[in-house]
Amino acid sequence: MPKALDEVEVVGYKTISKGNAEKVTFKTDFTKGLLKSAKADIALRRIPNIVYSGGSFMFTGKQKKAKLFVNGMEVPDEELSKIDAKDIYKVELHRVSLNDDKYSGEINVVLKKSLNAQYSGEIDMGTNLLNTGFGVNPLFKYRSKKIEVTTWVSYVNDRQNSQYKRNRNDEDVFLSDNHNHLKQYGGLCRLNMFFSPRWMSSLSYSMFGYKSPADISWQLYGVTQPEKEVEESYFSNFANMVIRHDINAGERFYIKARYFNYKSENRSTMPVTRYIGRMNEYTGDLMYEADSVSLFNKYHSVAAGYKSIYRNSTLTSSDKTYISDVQQFYIKDNILLNDKWSMFVLLRGDWDGHKFENGNAQRKFSFLPSCTVNYGSGKGSLSATYTRSIERPGIDYLNPDVYYINDMTRFKGNSKLKSKYTDRYSVNYSRQIKDSYLTAVMSYENTDNFIGQIYLDDYNTSTYENTGHGHNYRMDVAFNKPFLSNKLNLNLSVGTMYKAFKIKPYLKDKALNGENKGWAFICSGNLSYMMPKEWFLNLSMDYTSRDITFNTVTYVRPMLNILLTKALFRNHLNISLQYIDMFGLARKRRVECDFKGIRQTSTCHLATSRLSISVVYHFGKQFRGRSVGETIDNEDMITK
Q1: Partners of 223 in the β-ladder
Q2: CA distances (Å), origin 26, targets 29, 291, 454, 636
Q3: What residues form DSSP beta bridges with 306?
Q4: N or C: which end of the chain has fewer CB within 10 A?
Q5: Distances in whole angstroms, Cα of residue 30 to Cα of each of 76, 111, 529, 530
């Protein structure tokens, strides 16, 4: 018999992600449980599958940080702290990217659109309470129907103290105390121009630099050496241009150009040394995209392009030149097989070469394919991925001259060094369970031509060799859960990995032991809580029990980042207190090296501890941008 119901409660959970073989897209209210003035870097720490570690963002199950994009345009890490969280429309996670070498995938933050003329800005000022230091970061944005302008600068003046110790076969042999005065600066200016609905362009310039004079007192074998002065400086320029033409609603063509330049200099008074390194890099890129192409009764989203990179470098310890180039062809295809199955294929061919001044030129072709197969249903998403990547040694690894730091630390490059190749196989499962999100990742990496630092002639001058090959097995589980109507949010990731390395036979007798292997534990988490009366607390933690390479094991203390923010005057003013460190007022790192006939332990106390207070004043109307296209991303080379 039918009965009347006096009251019915219906509980529903919104789907926050949508994925295929190419990417996973998160679309939700990114400001829920945050201050109205919260920035994108805080919002990203609460998104499933994203791990915040040491100031960078990574994916669950990967060790390298992800490349950051805003509206498809490459941005530095600092820019996320300049974007309002309420302007985020969606976040796209690309686990496989065109430049999956130095970085492990891409995070693309897509902003909301608005056609109203708007302007906004802020001034951020802070000081470090543990050491003498301060920072200033002004920001300004303007938008009309035809142009968008974004500009910001930063300046940090800080005094830092650090200490280095070295022990060999249970005997202390080296001690160094460094007192640095760091002056760091950076800035960015970007102009987006919208000529018509089909033609648009973007011009951007950014720079970064620092100057760090230091007074160093050191002891060698128990004998106190004269105090010396060291001054290290660095300056770099980035210039990017993107021209985009929308052929129609589903087809686009891009012309891109990039110029990168840097100069590094290191001076010392004991002994008198001066090292200068330079590089000029020129890149051009042509790319075609089509969103929906019907082929063999399937729909494809394709992209094809050609990129050319030219680099002219000056060796750090001499005036010799080093010239290298990379010619790259690539094609991407995202195939929708049916309503549950999809496939993503990336085929990339690199033809690269290099030569030293008055040396013989060398060229090599590398085929670097990637493939992902994804199955999605009501029980979650399951994907399997294969990726082959390359990491080319930079000029400091190839430089045959000796780079002197002190009597016990000298570096010498190897001009015959080969590129490192890694084949990665992974299985990823993710599922939303009510308002929670669960992710599990299993992966295996096989690395050939591993680039390792070794000692051949003595234990004070190191060089680089293709020391052998390594294996890395890893499993990670991540869990994301909001509480108290999203006022409290937990994003936790735990995992374990096993590394094993095997050395080439000819190095086994000269410098290294036979093999190095072992387990490691990984944990990272982010907890945020929106308290009453506009108080916000964010706690981030990351820890890796040890990092194993061919002949070293590195131990690092856990790191804790606590941020407490109070919003005042209707969110026009923010006052923040931040503490970075754990278990002491200096980050400690211990490196154990096991060479043939000697066991060396190096201990570093780094000046990473911070207890700082900052004040941010916001003014103007809120700003939202439009996408022109991503800039060029050259990440094919290992740099120091």
Answers
A1: 220
A2: 10, 20, 44, 28
A3: 286, 329
A4: N
A5: 21, 11, 14, 14
Q: Which residue from 103, 111, 98, 92 is spatially nearest to 23, judged by alpha carbons? A: 92
The amino acid occupying position 23 is: K
Rounded-to-integer distance, Cα 307 and Cα 330, Å: 8
Count of C-beta atoms within a 10 Å radius of residue 436: 14
Query: Is the Cα torsion angle 467, 266, 240, 618 positive or negative in sign?
Result: positive
Residue among 631, 634, 625 at smallest CA distance from 255: 631
**HSE of 247 in the Cβ direction (CA atoms, 13 Å)?**
10
Q: How wide is the angle at C-alpha 111 spanned by C-alphas 109 and 116, nearest 5°?
A: 165
> What amino acid occupies position 564?
L
Asked if residues 580 and 609 have their Cβ atoms less than 8 Å apart, the reply is yes
Burial class (CB in 10 A: 0-12, 13-18, 19+), 426: buried
The answer to whether the beta carbons of residues 394 and 639 sit under 8 Å apart is: yes
Q: What is the pLDDT of residues 300-356, one digit of tens each?
A: 899 999 999 999 988 766 677 888 999 999 999 999 888 899 999 999 999 998 887
Structure tokens given for 95: 């686990």
> For position 343, what pLDDT does the model report?
95
CB 219 within 8 A of CB 258: no
103 close to 64: Cβ distance less than 8 angstroms: yes
Bridge partners (DSSP) of residue 53 are 56
Asked whether the beta carbons of 212 and 183 are under 8 A apart, the reply is: yes
Rounded CA-CA distance 456/445 in Å is 28
How many angstroms separate the Cα of 135 from the Cα of each of 158, 159, 160, 213?
8, 12, 14, 18
Q: Please provide the average confidence, as pLDDT, over all residues in the chain.
A: 86
Query: With contact defined as beta carbons under 8 Å apart, do 330 and 98 qualify?
Result: yes
Length of the chain: 640
pLDDT tens per residue, range 181-234: 889 999 999 999 999 989 999 999 999 999 887 666 666 666 667 777 888 899
Element (H, E) at 396: helix 395-398
CA 301 to chain centre: 27
pTM for the structure as a whole: 0.87
Rounded to whole angstroms, the Cα distance separating 518 from 375 reads 34
Q: What is the CA radius of gyration of the chain?
A: 26
* Count of beta carbons in the 10 Å neighbourhood of residue 294: 8
Q: pLDDT (tens digit, 9 = 90+) per residue, 473-496?
A: 999 999 999 999 889 999 999 999
Coil/strand/helix, residue 86: helix
d(CA 635, CA 306): 16
Q: What would the mean pLDDT of 502-521 be, rounded to a whole number?
A: 77
